[in-house]
From TrEMBL, chains A, B, C, D:
Pfam families: PfkB. Belongs to the carbohydrate kinase PfkB family. This is 5-dehydro-2-deoxygluconokinase. The keyword Kinase applies. InterPro entries: Carboh/pur_kinase_PfkB_CS, DKG_kinase_firmi, Myo_inos_IolC, Myo_inos_IolC-like_sf, PfkB_Carbo_kinase, PfkB_dom, Ribokinase-like. Pathway: Polyol metabolism; myo-inositol degradation into acetyl-CoA; acetyl-CoA from myo-inositol: step 5/7. Catalyzes the phosphorylation of 5-dehydro-2-deoxy-D-gluconate (2-deoxy-5-keto-D-gluconate or DKG) to 6-phospho-5-dehydro-2-deoxy-D-gluconate (DKGP). One of its GO terms (molecular function) is 5-dehydro-2-deoxygluconokinase activity. PANTHER family: 5-DEHYDRO-2-DEOXYGLUCONOKINASE, HEXOKINASE FAMILY MEMBER. It comes from the Bacteria. The gene is iolC. Gene3D superfamilies: 3.40.1190.20, putative 5-dehydro-2- deoxygluconokinase (2.20.150.10). The lineage of its organism: Bacteria, Bacillati, Bacillota, Bacilli, Bacillales. Residues 15-317 form the Carbohydrate kinase PfkB domain.
Amino acid sequence: MNPITIPADKPIDFAAIGRLCIDLNANEINRPMEETMTFTKYVGGSPANITIGMARLGMKTAFVGKIADDQMGRFIANYLHKNGIDTAGVVTDRTGAVTGLAFTEIKSPTDCSILMYRDNAADLKLTAEEVREDIIAGAKVFLISGTALAQSPSREAVFQALQYARKHGAIIAFDLDYRPYTWISPEETAIYYNLAAEWCDIILGTREEFDMMERFEQNPERSDRITAAKWFNHSAKIVIIKHGKEGSIAYTPDGASHRAESYPAKVVKTFGAGDSYAAGFLYGIMQGWDIESSMAFGSAAACIVISSHSCSDAMPTVPQVEDYIRRCERGEITAT
Amino acid sequence: MNPITIPADKPIDFAAIGRLCIDLNANEINRPMEETMTFTKYVGGSPANITIGMARLGMKTAFVGKIADDQMGRFIANYLHKNGIDTAGVVTDRTGAVTGLAFTEIKSPTDCSILMYRDNAADLKLTAEEVREDIIAGAKVFLISGTALAQSPSREAVFQALQYARKHGAIIAFDLDYRPYTWISPEETAIYYNLAAEWCDIILGTREEFDMMERFEQNPERSDRITAAKWFNHSAKIVIIKHGKEGSIAYTPDGASHRAESYPAKVVKTFGAGDSYAAGFLYGIMQGWDIESSMAFGSAAACIVISSHSCSDAMPTVPQVEDYIRRCERGEITAT
Amino acid sequence: MNPITIPADKPIDFAAIGRLCIDLNANEINRPMEETMTFTKYVGGSPANITIGMARLGMKTAFVGKIADDQMGRFIANYLHKNGIDTAGVVTDRTGAVTGLAFTEIKSPTDCSILMYRDNAADLKLTAEEVREDIIAGAKVFLISGTALAQSPSREAVFQALQYARKHGAIIAFDLDYRPYTWISPEETAIYYNLAAEWCDIILGTREEFDMMERFEQNPERSDRITAAKWFNHSAKIVIIKHGKEGSIAYTPDGASHRAESYPAKVVKTFGAGDSYAAGFLYGIMQGWDIESSMAFGSAAACIVISSHSCSDAMPTVPQVEDYIRRCERGEITAT
Amino acid sequence: MNPITIPADKPIDFAAIGRLCIDLNANEINRPMEETMTFTKYVGGSPANITIGMARLGMKTAFVGKIADDQMGRFIANYLHKNGIDTAGVVTDRTGAVTGLAFTEIKSPTDCSILMYRDNAADLKLTAEEVREDIIAGAKVFLISGTALAQSPSREAVFQALQYARKHGAIIAFDLDYRPYTWISPEETAIYYNLAAEWCDIILGTREEFDMMERFEQNPERSDRITAAKWFNHSAKIVIIKHGKEGSIAYTPDGASHRAESYPAKVVKTFGAGDSYAAGFLYGIMQGWDIESSMAFGSAAACIVISSHSCSDAMPTVPQVEDYIRRCERGEITAT
């Protein structure tokens, strides 16, 4: 059992709003990017990755966002379309904005970093008027991502989308996805994250992301329980706090905390772990699985992604996740 | 009786956050500004005027805001101080911002306009970190004004102030005070006004201001009742919708609407009517008067202000308002 | 004799480009602005003042500039027109820019300061395309002022105007008029001032202004002679370096330096001294007077302006200047 | 013979200022970029390419510019260093600027385009104070490139560099390299290009680039001769106007025009043709060759670059150019 009741009778299982960008992944890895000569292009951006993940898991999906009027933007739209994601809500910028980029550097499986290009990014130009109410009205679960709150007018588009989601009874999930470089200050970030989180049913983030949100508050011991309790006073039904290698804890309004088993992986890089986890977890919740099972499914999906070169392109299908779990259970997969 | 219970045991009756500026009122009136040669300087800005009004009515008051580091800024701070307003929450800008200006043009008592200087205005530079929680914690009634939502970082300062006011149980009043020139679009305005209004106990605005807030909604007949009902689903206890000469209507969650008698005035100009009305009305509510009596007191205060040359400087004391009402009742004052 | 040959057969004696703003002069003087309650409105801006000065001296004048689409902008246009200045080259901004303001503070005749409003000022929005070649082609003397170089697109408008002036053989005068607040850095300022000064026949500035221009150079003793010599390698025929109370020195390419007698004045404030000096001096040069006589005429014009409350409005006629000189000579005027 | 006398007794043959960026060249070519999956990273930017070209031709070279404080910036500095270019004048940005990018799309040898990332580019953050006078003082030939004029503070850095070059007697070359996307308007561009070109000895550009510079002028027939003549009134000794496939024409102050033979090439893409031409031509001029021979050498260098995948990395050595010319003369190379 889980505390979320998914609305029935809606045509779209899952819709998301926010960042659509290009990952340029180093082909020559385990070295500094200075020594990388070639890069491979993938669709990226946390909400894009999660939506692709949901589509791979068989969900009916849609996206609300904005792309640049260039080759990169058209590549993104094509890729979403090919993955069966409804792109009616994806508008094209006409102001000369560019596609956000993320060059990945993989010095070692545990030492990864990203070089971001976020100036004048098209996804941050989405306006409130461009948000299609009908798409959000038709979605059972609607996901927002923190990066889309970083700048106007995308920030206002997210708040308007939240109004629609609340009005039409969607389950709202918030993937915190805090990226400091597009924000003016942690204080600014905390204020908008807190405003948005009040309306959300499911909140997923790292301990550090929740710390940022508590910048104006008192939680000196950084207690997960205090963090979660705050949101149960608003709309939250599940709060997941991720602690990296130590695993994640899910809290529920009944006071319970939930942990799932984790799986071994032959790690290539850490990028995409959170996105595939979110997709797997939300898939489980939407199937009516209990929280622990949903978390385990998310963990296995994450293991698959971090074992491969890309993020979006590596998002697994249900049989792939099930197979991975079985192979782990049989001891066929061991950690790097 | 009125639906507001004022918290007891707090040292400050009334605090406000937002715009502090300079009014430059034409001395030669009833002509276009092109033909005006001299101007007189007053403190201005809607929340400043209301706070000055509350101070004149004998309330213990405080202000949270930001002034320029120049002669105009120091004049404002001195004037607030001389009126008994606690300015511990008024910080001084250090970035070279200027004091916002409002040149008034009075072509006739009914044809007034304002020439605004709002670029690089110090009041819009107030940051969330600069908002003093202790001042808001100590206030029985806390007022926000829409202009302070127009730009970052003042926008975030207001949301953080609202967090503090909610946390400490202040009665929150929202004077909509919509001034298009500092906003990017009506859509942007609607989004932040709606976010802020959810947390407010008392909302005061014109029909046109509420129309702006309903930009993404369905209220084609511009029904005051539908407008008010929306906010009773959130925190509101009183919603006042102003219809200019046709007077104001106050709505309450019990479904009732309230109108007050109006008073005649020898009108010099219309500026300041809303601010003095708000001060008088909130004063009445804080005395535990019923809504109609509070509205009448506000109306009389407004009449005094529009009969004189300034706004802030003309804010009346309680005996002045009482005297005005008595003179009206005796027929000693007739309209222009 | 003077080294400037004024072109004949041109319909306009004097045209200028640049700042058009409003001075708001304190009516209650000899006190800090905090204690000033009323202000009187005048047209201001150095090139505007000089052009008004030239018009009062009987010259045929024109102005190239930009005004805000508001009451202040219309007041400026009307005032220029009433003073006989051709305003065909004065365009109206349509972007919502405002009229630059200068509030004057007169603490004492020798302690004067200005509070400037230059954000989003209309005069700095003049574009190169809006500069009327025909007006500059028709002018005998064309004056630029440093403040117009402070920001784009006004900066480019000045360079384009200089191209036209050079092409059509106007005598080009440069009033340095350096106001730090509209510039990013002294280095940026130095670069554009030096670019512009190469093309100018007459350069007028204070020692401090020339110091700023020499930021990347070697003139450690701040020698006026070295300063002037640099410009004689380019187009300059007269370089005037002003040393405040110690008077001004004019240099010419023949190696000579020129000083004029100064006159006493009952000083109200120091504002406007430079503008009236420039008008008087250029008037003399245009009459074919020698440099000393032109400087003396400029000094007397300056004395008249600093003895009165306004700048633009106090610009004298030829009989007024002549009368002032005669009264000084008769000992009827003594210093404050 | 050629009209340029190269200064002797200077330690650096060739220095340039301006753009340093990264080219990301499509590996899968002859298709739209949407279908390109991998990219190879090279150093790019017109002045960088020309300097690399000069270094390959055996010249002692130096660069004045700014790189981002990231992996891309360090890659650029390393690459210049490995090519023997003195990077003492290359400073590192500390404001969070990024490295400019150029994704190349090669649909066919004659249908090539570039997707540029120029927002917040480090090279445009170079300030006038950061320009090392000693490096420019030590250079025989100093090259500026138009893109560096596109924005402040790089624009001012170029003008200051020109001051130094003029002061120390360097031969100044101007590669127009007009890229509209970083400029506000063609009018703005024309003004700064014209200001800079007045001080240059050698000006190289396409007919379209010279058209842009003549935006405020009269050259309705787009006459190359009129274009060139204008600059001979200033500092120019050679003006080269490029007409794409129809070849280039060089003009000299004596009224002569010069054309060189062209060579066939197996074209992969057109990028880099201008940069390698400029390097080859300037190399010839510096050897004291006549203009036609220098042009021919430049053409052959260009053929080598357009026959290969990269720009900077394909810049040829002297033996490679000589070998290419011989093979053309023997008929061993024919056009695509």
